[in-house]
Amino acid sequence: MRTNKFGIRIAASALALAVSYGANATVTDKDILNDANTPEDVVSYGMGTQGQRFSSLADLNTDNVKFLQPAWAFSFGSEKMRGQETQPMIKDGVMYVSASYSRVYAIDAKTGEELWQYDARLPDGIMPCCDVVNRGVALYDDKVIFGTLDAKLVALNKDTGKPMWIKKVADYQAGYAITAAPLVVKGKVITGVSGGEFGIVGKVEAYDANTGEKVWTRPTVEGHMGYVYKDGKAVENGISGGKAGVTWPGDMWKNGGAATWLGGTYDPETDSLFFGTGNPAPWNSHLRPGDNLFSSSRLAIDPDDGSIKWHFQTTPHDGWDYDGVNELVSFDLKEGGKTVKAAATADRNGFMYVLNRENGDFIRGFPFVDKITWAEGLDPKTGRPIYKEGGRPGNPADMDGKKGEMVLAQPAFLGGKNWMPMAYSQETELFYVPSNEWAMDIWNENVSYKKGAAFLGAGFTIKPANDDYIGVLRAMDPKTGKEVWRYENTAPLWGGVMTTAGNLVFTGTPEGYLKAFDAKTGEELYRFNTGSGVVGTPITWTMDGEQYVSVASGWGGAVPLWGGEVAKVVKHFNQGGAIWTFKLPKDRVASK
Amino acid sequence: MKTIARLFAFMLVFQWAAAQEVSDGDKLLNRPADRTYDVVLESGYLKVGVYENFPPYSYEVNGEPRGLDVELGKRIAEEMGLEFKVHWIVPDENLGDDLRNNVWKGHYLAKQRLADVMLRVPYDKTYAYMQDSTGEYVNEQVVMFGPYQQETWQIAYNPERLESVDTVAVFQYHPIGVEIDTLPDFYLTSGLRGRLRDQVRHFRNVEEAFRAMRDGEVAAVMGMRAEIDHELAKAENREFRLAGNGFPGIGKQVWDVGMAVKQSHRQLGYALEDVVGRLVKSGRLEQLFADLNLRYGVPQYYKEFLSEEALAKAEGKL
C-alpha cells in the first residue's frame, strides 16, 4: 500500500505499538466517548468530551512530582514562532499536535522524532484578527482533523499527513477563521467559527467525519434559519430563537455577531453539545436595546440535527465585550445526598455559573475574580446580572465633540477568564480556574476615522488591577462558590489547566514555566522553564508503564497584541514554538 | 472597545493583486524595504496605498485599478516621473490600524508589504496629535499631510417614496440604507433618541444600499457625498434625487482628506505635498473629480489662505 521508505517505517512502528498496547489502529466514537477513562491515550480536546481535563493517573503525585524530568522537546520550526495555544493528542504512541499558522505534526511520542508535518496553504496576506493560534486537532478513524485560519476543516491521514478532505466552513474574505479544536461526536466533526464583529453571524456546524459533507448548520443569532442536509439538499430545521427581531431592534440581528470561536464540549449523558457564543455586534450597546440573543450565551445543541435544546445568557445586552464563549464543563454535583447532572463555566464577565445541564436551569453563580464593577451580583433565581448604575460605557452619539466620560470596568474585555480551559478534579471536587485580575478604561473618542471617513470610536486601555500580579490560578468550590486556594502570577495566565488523581494541578505561565501545584493546598511543587511563554494546555498519559506530561511552549495569543500597562509586564517575553514532554521514570514512582 | 472575537479578520486578497503589486521587501529579514525619497526615485516607481473595493475612490475593474484616488495617484507618480504602482489596503478597524499595517510597520502576517504613500487619510491636527492614556503621541510613526479634498455626508432618496427630505426625522417612517459600521449607521441608529432605529437597514456598502433602493426595500441611502454622487451618475439610479437636509448632531460635518507617509520619509512627503498642492491650486484636481461626475470640495486647509480668486480657480470656477 505504502511504497515510500518513510511510510513503511511508520507502518512498522505503528504495528509494533499496536501489539505492545493492544490498542486499536484507528479512533472510534467509543474511544472518544471513553477518553476520560483511558489514560494510555488522549483522543479528545478536554481529555474527555465533557472537558474536565482530569486524569485518573496517580503514578505521578505530590510526593514524586519533583522527579518529573524532560524526556524530549520538539521544535515546530520555521519563523512562525508565536502563539502555541494547542493541546496535543496521543494515540498508539504517536502525538498529533497543531501549531500556530495552521500547522499539524505527528511525532513519535517516545523519542520526539517527527513522523510528518502538514502546513495548511493559507491565502497570501491572510489577516486573521487575533493572532495566528490553533488550539488543537481532533482524531477520528484514520484521520487527524483541524480547522485553519482561512476557515476550512482539513482531514489528514494519520499515517502520512496527506489531506483526505478539505472543506470550506466559512468565507475568510468575509472575516471568518477557525482557531478552536474541532469536536467529533457520533461520526460528525462539530466546529464553530471565529470572526470579526460586523457583518458576521456565529454558527455551529456538523460535517461527516469520513467524507467532509455538511450534515447540519445552526446559526447562533436569533432570526436565522438552521438547516440539515439530506442528499446534498438543505432542509429547513427551524429558525434560531423562533423568529427575528424579538431581542434585537430593526435589522440588526442580520449582523449580530455571537461567534462560536472557542469550540465546544459534549456530554454523552444528556446527549448535548455545549457551545458558547461571543459578544453581540456592534460594540456600542446603546444602538441595540434588548437581550440580543444568543450572544454571550451558552447553548445546548442536539448533535443529531443542530437544534437548540436550551440556552443560558451570561451577559444579556453586553456592553463590555464579555464574550460568552468559555467552555461549559460537565460534572456530577453531589450535594444534599443527591447527584445533579451539572455543568460549570467561568465567564469573561467575572462570574462563575453552575447550571443544570439537563435543562440549563441556574443552580448558582458567584464571582471568581476579586472585583466586578459592572454588576451588583446575579439574580439568585435566574442568574441574570443585576446591572450597576453607571457601569455601562456611554453612548458615543451623546457626545458633543469632546472626549467622553471614562468608565472603569472590571474585569477587562479580555475577561476574568479568557479562552484557556479550566479543569475539574473528581477527587477534590474543585474547579481549577486560570484567571486574571485586570480592569479597563473605556471612553468615547472625540476624533476618530475609519476608511477615510469621520467615525465614532471608543478608546480603551487595559490595566492590571494590582501592582504585583495579574494572573491568579484559583481552586473554586462549585458547592459553596468559595475560593479554596489561589496562586498569584506576575504575568496574565493564558494557558490551560489539567488536574490528576495524583493530587496535582498543572498549568503554564507566560514567564515560560510549566508548574505543578498540590490540588488541595495550592502549594507549588514543581516548575520547569520551557524557554518561552506557555499558553498551551498540558496533557498526561501513560506509555510503557511510565507517566508522561506534555505541553506546548511559545508565547503569543491575544495578550501581547494589546498595549497599555499590561504590555509593560509581558513585552520582554520571547516568542517560541515547541512541544516539551516530561516523564516520571519508573524507578521514581515510589520515591519521596 | 475590542475583543478577540470581534477583531476584524480582514483578509487581503492578493491573488489578483500580486499581478499589479511589486514585492520589494527583504525576504531574508522579513521586513519592508526602507523606501526613502532617493530610493523611490531610483526605483522608478511609487507605491500608492488606496482602499480596495471602495468606489468611487479606489476599486478594480477587469483587473485594472480605477477611481478618483487611483487617478490622483497616477497624476502624482507622473509629475514625479515615476511609474504608478497600486498598493491595495483592506480597511481594518480604524485609521490607526490602517496606518500601522500599510504605512509604518506592516501587518504581522505581511511584514514585507508597505505603501510609499497612503491616500484618503483624513487631515486633522487633533487626530494627528492625539495622545494615549500614558501621554504618548498615538500617531508619532507617521506624518499626515497634503490635504486634497474636503468630504461630507449626503443622502439620496427615491422621489416616488418621499416628496423630499427636509430633515432626517422622515426616517422615523421610511426605511433608509447605510453601510454597516459607519458614522451614518451610528448616527441614524442612535439619532432622535433611537426613534429612527427600526428603519435603518444595513448593507455591506453604498452600492448594495442603492440596489435595495431600486428594489424598493429602502426609500433613501446615506453615505459620503462622493459615494452618493457616484451612484447617482449611474443610469439605473437616475430616478433618485439628492436630499438637501442637514445632519444635526454630527460632530464632524466636513473633514479634509490627505495623505500619509512614514515619519522617517518626510522628504518624500514634501515632494508629494508640492505635487498635490499644484494639482489642487491649478484646478486640475477639480477637473479630475468632474470627469468622474463627482463634486469637488476644496480642503479647509486651502480656504484659510487662498485668495478668493485662487480659491475659485481651485474650485474650477475660473
TrEMBL record, chain A:
<keyword id="KW-0479">Metal-binding</keyword>
<dbReference type="GO" id="GO:0016614">
    <property type="term" value="F:oxidoreductase activity, acting on CH-OH group of donors"/>
</dbReference>
<dbReference type="InterPro" id="IPR011047">
    <property type="entry name" value="Quinoprotein_ADH-like_sf"/>
</dbReference>
<feature type="binding site">
    <location>
        <begin position="418"/>
        <end position="419"/>
    </location>
    <ligand>
        <name>pyrroloquinoline quinone</name>
    </ligand>
</feature>
<keyword id="KW-0732">Signal</keyword>
<dbReference type="Pfam" id="PF01011">
    <property type="entry name" value="PQQ"/>
</dbReference>
<dbReference type="GO" id="GO:0005509">
    <property type="term" value="F:calcium ion binding"/>
</dbReference>
<feature type="binding site">
    <location>
        <position position="135"/>
    </location>
    <ligand>
        <name>pyrroloquinoline quinone</name>
    </ligand>
</feature>
<feature type="disulfide bond">
    <location>
        <begin position="129"/>
        <end position="130"/>
    </location>
</feature>
<dbReference type="GO" id="GO:0042597">
    <property type="term" value="C:periplasmic space"/>
</dbReference>
<feature type="binding site">
    <location>
        <position position="321"/>
    </location>
    <ligand>
        <name>Ca(2+)</name>
    </ligand>
</feature>
<feature type="binding site">
    <location>
        <position position="85"/>
    </location>
    <ligand>
        <name>pyrroloquinoline quinone</name>
    </ligand>
</feature>
<dbReference type="GO" id="GO:0070968">
    <property type="term" value="F:pyrroloquinoline quinone binding"/>
</dbReference>
<dbReference type="InterPro" id="IPR018391">
    <property type="entry name" value="PQQ_b-propeller_rpt"/>
</dbReference>
<dbReference type="InterPro" id="IPR002372">
    <property type="entry name" value="PQQ_rpt_dom"/>
</dbReference>
<feature type="domain" description="Pyrrolo-quinoline quinone repeat">
    <location>
        <begin position="491"/>
        <end position="549"/>
    </location>
</feature>
<keyword id="KW-0560">Oxidoreductase</keyword>
<feature type="domain" description="Pyrrolo-quinoline quinone repeat">
    <location>
        <begin position="44"/>
        <end position="362"/>
    </location>
</feature>
<dbReference type="GO" id="GO:0020037">
    <property type="term" value="F:heme binding"/>
</dbReference>
<feature type="binding site">
    <location>
        <position position="279"/>
    </location>
    <ligand>
        <name>Ca(2+)</name>
    </ligand>
</feature>
<keyword id="KW-0574">Periplasm</keyword>
<feature type="binding site">
    <location>
        <position position="197"/>
    </location>
    <ligand>
        <name>Ca(2+)</name>
    </ligand>
</feature>
From TrEMBL, chain B:
<comment type="similarity">
    <text>Belongs to the bacterial solute-binding protein 3 family.</text>
</comment>
<dbReference type="GO" id="GO:0030313">
    <property type="term" value="C:cell envelope"/>
</dbReference>
<protein>
    <submittedName>
        <fullName>Amino acid ABC transporter substrate-binding protein</fullName>
    </submittedName>
</protein>
<dbReference type="InterPro" id="IPR001638">
    <property type="entry name" value="Solute-binding_3/MltF_N"/>
</dbReference>
<dbReference type="InterPro" id="IPR018313">
    <property type="entry name" value="SBP_3_CS"/>
</dbReference>
<keyword id="KW-0732">Signal</keyword>
<feature type="domain" description="Solute-binding protein family 3/N-terminal">
    <location>
        <begin position="45"/>
        <end position="309"/>
    </location>
</feature>
<feature type="signal peptide">
    <location>
        <begin position="1"/>
        <end position="19"/>
    </location>
</feature>
<dbReference type="Pfam" id="PF00497">
    <property type="entry name" value="SBP_bac_3"/>
</dbReference>
